[in-house]
Sequence to fold (420 residues):
Amino acid sequence: MNTIGFGNDRLNRKPVRMYKKLITWAPPHQTELRIVVSSEMVGAIIGRGGATIRGITQATRARVDVHRKENIGGVEKAITIYGNPENCSSACKRILEVMSQEATNTNKGEISLKILAHNSLIGRIIGKAGATIKKIMQETDTKINVSSVNEVSGLNIERVISIRGSVEGMSGAEAMISSKLRSSYESDLQALAPGVGGMFPGLHPMAMMSTMVPQQRPTLAPPYGAPVPPPAAPPYPLLGPPTGQPQETETVQMYIPNNSVGAVIGSKGSYIRNIIRFSGATVKVATVSGEKNEQPSERQVTILGSPDAQWKAQCMIFEKIREEGLGSPIEEPRLSVEISVPSGQVGRIIGKGGANVRELQRLTGAVIKFPSAGTEHSSSGNANSSPSAPENTSVQIIGSFYSVQSAQRRIRSMLSPRSQ
Fold:
C-alpha cells in the first residue's frame, strides 16, 4: 500500500506560539525560558556573525536558540533559553539589555519582555484576586499584562505574559514569574505521576500533561479509574525520562474514518506537520487507489515513535476527529489501532481461559481482539510451532483515546522483559 509521508519541515505560521515542540527533554536540574521578541530585534540579538549571541551564551552558560526560520514574515520571533534557572534569567537580562540599546539607537521607544507560559499555570501567576501578580509588579516596579484566554486552543495552549519597565525591573519580574511557574509545574507533576504509572505503564507524566487541553470545551475523558490530571502542562522540561534511557521506538497502525483524512492531513499538510512537530513521531497516511465508490470506509495511519511520541500523535488525531464532529455527536471518538506482538506471547496476553484479556478490557474500557484461528495471524498458543506461523501477531484495540492508550501501554508492559 502506498503511503503519504510528511517530514519535520517548518510551518509558515503567522501567530507566535507553537514553536518547535511544546515539550522537550532537558538534562536534570535544567529548564527552559521561552520569550517572544520583535522580529526587528533579532539581528541585534544575534549580532554580526553571531558574535552577540555567542557572547551571551559564554557569559551566562545558558544555551540560546533564536527561532529565525519559524513564523516567517511574522512581526515576532520566539527565543528559547536553556540552562539552570539562574543562567536562564541572566541570559534573558542580557537580551533585554541588547534590545534596550537597539531601541535607543533606532528610536524605537520602550521595549517589553514577553514570556510564553502554559495556560494551566496562568491562574497561579495571577493569584487570588490578582494578589500574586500585584506583588510582583510592586516589588519590581513593572506593569504586567496577560493575554486573553480566548486565544487558547488545542494547538495553542500558551499565553503571553507582557512586562514593561526598566531592564532591571523586567529581569526581576521574569525571575519571580519563572520561579512560580517551575514550582507550580513540579507540584502538578508530582500529583499526576503515581496515577499515570499505574494506568499507562511506560509513559512519562509530562507526555500526558502536554496534551491536556484547557477546559473551554468537552475534552477526551479518561476511563474509569484513570487519574484526573490538571488541564495542561507547562513547557518546562525539568525532568528527563524516568529510566534515564532513550525510549524504544514503537509502531502503531491506526484506522480513521475515510472522510476524516482531509482534516487529519490539513490544508497542504499543515495539521499532520503539527502532529509530527509536536509529538516527534513519524506519521504516514496510506493512500488508496480505484474508483471513489470502491474506497474503504477507513484509512490506515502508521505512527512510529517512542511511547511519549505515540501518546501525543494519537491524541492529536483523536482530538481532530472529535473537533470536526466526524465521530458520534454525543460520544468521544472510538477508533481502532493495531499493535504487533510476538506470536509466542499471545497466550500470555489472553491468559488462562481468556482471564487476562477480560481483565484488560474491564480496566481499560477498550475492546481487544485477536485474529481468529486460520487467519494470517493466528493467536493460538501453539501457532508458532507451525513452520508457516508468523513471528508476530496483530492485536486490535478499539475504544476512546484513553481506553486505547491504557490498553496499549498495559499490553506492552506485560511483554517487557522486566515483567517476565
